[in-house]
């Protein structure tokens, strides 16, 4: 997606194993018209990164992974670095950030995005030994409606299902 360079001197190393995952949607960045193409999704992610770097003053995009409606998973911030997505440095500590592109207060997840999110969460949980009860909605970390009603419902389902 042709990321802008991160400001490496401002990034914090993870400093230990990943312990939790927080799920977000991109609506807080503003409206973006999605057409499903890879280039359109790349432009949306670049918009998120610009917002995070220029408006928020962060070193890089805050999320480690982003998922589009076609189920494509994009790498955001490198896993070498602490995220900037959950609310403050303490909440971000050893917390993987996953963002699904869209506004899930008004839209439902596509089947492709749902499958990609499920697979990504399964893979991250397995690789980093993270339990289901260590998956959070952004609104459980900070005062926000993120990740929207429909994505929140799906994440709650995922956390309760033994075979997901």
Describe the structure.
The model has no long low-confidence stretch (mean pLDDT 92). The protein has helices at residues 38-55, 89-92, 111-128, 149-160; strands at 20-25, 65-67, 73-75, 95-100, 135-137. By secondary structure, it is α/β, with parallel strands linked by helices. It contains four helices and five strands; from the N terminus they run βαββαβαβα. A hairpin with a 5-residue loop joins strand 2 and strand 3 (73-75).
Count of extended strands: 5
| Order of secondary-structure elements | EHEEHEHEH
Q: Number of helix segments?
A: 4
Strand content: 5-15%
Q: Helicity, in percent?
A: 25-40%
What's the average pLDDT? 92
Q: What's the overall geometry? A: globular
Q: What integer value in Å does the Rg equal? A: 15 Å
Main sheet strand line-up: 3-2-4-1-5
State the separation between the terminal residues, measured CA to CA. 29 Å
- SS class: alpha/beta
The biggest beta sheet reads:
5 strands, mixed
Low-confidence stretches: none
Summarize it.
The chain is of the alpha/beta class. The protein has helices at 38-55, 89-92, 111-128, 149-160; strands spanning 20-25, 65-67, 73-75, 95-100, 135-137.
Reconstruct the topology from this structure.
Layout: E1 20-25, H1 38-55, E2 65-67, E3 73-75, H2 89-92, E4 95-100, H3 111-128, E5 135-137, H4 149-160
Parallel strand pairs: 1-4, 1-5, 2-4
Antiparallel strand pairs: 2-3
Throw out a few tags for this protein:
about 160 residues, alpha/beta, about 15% strand, globular
């Amino acid at each position: 997606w042709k990321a802008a360079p991160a400001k490496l001197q401002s990034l914090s190393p993870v400093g230990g194993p990943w312990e939790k995952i927080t799920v977000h949607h991109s609506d807080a960045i503003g409206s973006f018209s999605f057409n499903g193409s890879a280039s359109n999704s790349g432009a949306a992610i670049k918009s998120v990164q610009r917002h995070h770097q220029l408006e928020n003053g962060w070193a890089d995009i805050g999320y480690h992974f982003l998922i589009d409606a076609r189920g494509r998973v994009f790498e955001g911030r490198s896993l070498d670095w602490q995220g900037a997505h959950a609310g403050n440095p303490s909440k971000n500590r050893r917390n993987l950030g996953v963002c699904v592109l869209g506004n899930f207060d008004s839209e439902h997840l596509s089947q492709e995005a749902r499958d990609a999110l499920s697979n990504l969460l399964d893979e991250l949980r397995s690789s980093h030994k993270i339990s289901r009860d260590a998956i959070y909605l952004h609104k459980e970390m900070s005062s926000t409606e993120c990740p929207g009603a429909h994505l929140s419902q799906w994440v709650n389902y995922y956390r309760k299902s033994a075979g997901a």
